[in-house]
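Write out the 3D structure for:
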Amino acid sequence: MAKKASNFKKSKTGLYISLGSTAFGAITVAKQAKLAREDNDVLRLVDAAVSAAAIVTGLAILYRELKRLGDDDVLLG
């Protein structure tokens, strides 16, 4: 069972689910930044900026993994 779970993480479906959950996190960070700007809370705004940077990095890593999986697929190029 654990082997199936680790294979799922490296599958296209697993990567798409990770991309979706990361995108959902981006929505949360955008709301956090909006509230921080409304309240003029610099610390929360910095937290939102750091979280946004982490999300961008995570998306870049997931995109790279998706491209690696696509190297074997003729249709994905």
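Residues 42-70 form the longest helix (29 residues).
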